[in-house]
Design goal:
CATH class of the largest domain: Alpha Beta
Strand content: 15-25%
CATH topology of the largest domain: Metallo-beta-lactamase, Chain A
Largest sheet: 8 strands, mixed
Shape: globular
Structural class: alpha/beta
Strand order of the largest sheet: 15-14-13-12-11-10-23-24
Radius of gyration: 29 Å
CATH superfamily of the largest domain: Ribonuclease Z/Hydroxyacylglutathione hydrolase-like
Number of domains: 4
CATH architecture of the largest domain: 4-Layer Sandwich
Helix content: 40-55%
Amino acid sequence: MDRRKLMIYTGMLIAGITAGYICLERHRPVEGILLLAGIAGSFAAISEQMGKEYGMTRKQLRVMLLFLMVGFFNFALNYNRYYTDETLLKRDQIAFKEMKILHVREQEKYIAYEGTAHLPSGRRRILCRDYSENRSPLSVGTVARVSGELSLPEEARNPGCFNYRLHLKGKGIVYTVNAQGIRTRSIFRRPTDVFHRKLQQRRNDFLDKFRHRPTVRGFLKGILFGDRGELEEETYREFTENGTAHILAVSGLHVGFLIALLNALARKRKYWKITMGIFLVLILYGELTEWSPSTLRAVLIAILSMSGMYLNRAFDLTTGTAAAAFGVLMVQPYQLFQTGFIMSYLAILGMAFLTRPLSHFLGEGLASLMSLQMMMIPFQIYAFNRFNPLTVLINLPIIFLASVLVPCGVILFLFSGLISSGGIPAESISRLTELLVGLNRMLHMNGSLSGSFTSAGTAELILFYLILLFLSSELFRVMVLRRDGTNLRRLFLILTIPALLLVLGFRNPLAGAEVVFIDVGQGDAIHLRSGGKNVLIDGGGDSKRNVGTGTLQPYLLKNGARTLDLSICTHLHMDHYRGVQELSEVLPVKAFALPGVYRGLPETPKGARLLRRGEVIRISDEMSVKVLWPESEELPGGVTEAESSDENLLNGVYRIDYRGIRILVTGDLLEEGEADMVKYYAGTQELRCDVLKVAHHGSHSSSSEAFLDAVRPKAAVIQVGKKNRYGHPHQETLEKLKRRNIPVYRNDRHGAIGLRVRRNKIIVDRMMN
C-alpha cells in the first residue's frame, strides 16, 4: 500500500463521515449502513487478496477500519449535537433573549453577528442579521439583547440546490434570527475578548483608509482577510466566471509570504523562540481572517512544515495535507461538506499528486498551476455550473498581480498606524488593486468566454476524484511497473460494490420524476422532461428577489437542463411569469407560449406563440400538453381591454397527458372560470384527472365543490410559499380536499414535488418529508 499511511487513514475517516452523512442527514439509514459495511468488507477482501504483495498487514487493516468507524460515530455525535426540531425551536424561542457576539461581518445590506446563547436545548450558536437603517456594528465580546424570532436555516428545497442548513452546520450554527432590535447589555472584559476587539478595530482602521474607494476597500477586505461581505456583486461574479475567485480565499499565498517575511527578518536562524514567534504570527493572522477553511489548512500545513524543519525531519506535502484535514474533521466533521473546505484541499491535492507527472511535459512552474486547475475545474463546474475554457491563461496574470498585491497589502496592514489614507503607500495599493480588478474585468469580456454547464451527480464526482487520485498514486505506479494487471482488475472489481452503494446513497430524490413542481416560493413553476426535451409551465416570480437566476437557473443546471425547449405560461401575473423573463436572460429559452386570449393586448410579449383551446403540444411520444381553457381567443364576456389587467380573468388551463395519467394545471383559475369550464365540458371526460395542481395557491376563491366533483383527482399539489402573507392555502380549500380523501402535497412543507409513472401507477417523490 502507499507509504503515506496517514493519507489512507484520513481517507477512511472521510469515508466514515460520508456514510454517517448519508445515514443521518440524507435520511437513508439502510444505504448509509450498507456503504459502511461495503467499505469495510472491500478493504478486508483487498487485504486478504493483495495484502502480502503490497504490504497491507492485518494490523494496518484494523487501524483503517477503526478510523472508518471513528468517522461514522464522530459525525453521528455532531449530528445529535446540532439536532433540533419544531418543538425544541419553540422552547428555545421563548427563552431566547440575548447572545454573546463572537464574530462581526459588515455586509452591504445588513450586519451579520455570530454568537452563542444558552437555551433549553443547550448552548447554541446563532447567526443574527441586523437590517435596521441606523445600524452600527457592536464589538466582539458584547452581550447583546436581541428581539427577533429564531428560525431553522433552510434546507435544499429543490434537488441538487444549495443546502443552507448544512452550510451553517459547518460553522456550528444552529439557528438564524433577523433582529427587529439589537442593543448592548454588557461587554466582557476578559483578556481574550479585549484582544479580539482590538484586532477587529485594527482591521477596520486599516480598511477605513480606503473608504472613499468602495471597490478597493471591498476587494482588499476579501483578498487580505477572506471577507467578501463588501465586495461588489458584479466584481465577484466576474472573478467566479473567470475561475479566479480562489485568490479571494486566504490561502498558502498569504501564509507563505508571512513565513518568508518572518524568516527573512530572523535571517533563517532556527531558534525555537523564532519558530514560536512565527507560529504566534500565523495564529494572529488566522484570527484576523476568522479561520476560514483555506486559512486553517494553510496555517496547519505551514506549522507542520516548520516543525519538520526545526526537528530536522523531511516534510511531505501529501502527509501534511492529510494531517491538517484529519485534525479539522475530527473537531468539525461537517466541514467536509463546505465548498471552501473542499476547494482548499482539492487545490493542494492537485499540486501534491499531479505536479510531478505533468512536469515531464510542462515544466515545474506551469505544471504546478495546471495541476491546481485540473483538480479544481470539475468541482467548480459541479458547484457553480460555470466554466471558462481560458481560465488557466487568465489565471497567469491575475495570480502574478495577486502575488504582488498580497505581500504589499500585508506589509501596509502591519504598518498601517504610520500611514495616512492619502499617502503614497495607500495610493499605490489602491492603484494596484484597481489594476487587478480592471484586468480581470477586461478578460471577463462580459461573460462571453464562460458558459453554463450542467452538474454531474455527487457520487459520480467523488468517484472521478478517487480514480484520478489512485491513477496518480504510488500504488498504481508500482502495479504498472510490475505489470500486475490481475490485481489491478481484482482491486477495481472489489471496489465496485462500495462505489455502487455510494451512487445509491447520493441519488437525486427526484431523479426519476418526469414532472417536477419546483419550489419557487409563492408562485407556480412546473418542469416537464421527456424524450430529451425540457418544458416549463409558469416560472414563479417575486418583487424582492430574482427567481430566474436565484432558483430556476440553478435548479435546471443541477438537473441536466442547459436550455428550455418551451416555456408555457398560464397568465402574466408576476408570480407565474417574471421568473421566466429573468431566466431567459441567463439561459436559452427557445420558444414562449401563452393563451390566445392575449392576442392584441399591449402586455403580450413579442414573438409569443398564442395557444388555442383544443391545441395539443407534443413534447415526446409519451408526453403532451393539451390546452383546455380559455374557451376562445376573445376576452371573457363582460371584460373590456382596459379591465384585462386582472390577469386571473385571462388564465389558461392545461392538461398534461403522460403514460396514461392526467395532470391538470390550473394556474390562478377563479371560481367563475371553474364554473364556466364545468358547464362547457359537461358530459365529457376532459376535466377528469389523476393529479390536480390546485388553483390560485389554495385560495378560497378557487377549488369550488362543483369543480372538484368534475375533476375527481386522486392527489393534489399546492404550489405555495412558506409563511406567505396571503395565508395560502386557505383552510376552507384544505377541508374540501380532506372530505374527498385527496392527499395533498405542498411546496411549503415538502419542497419540490416530483411525479413519475411506473406500471400505470403514480409515484410521488418529495424533497422533504
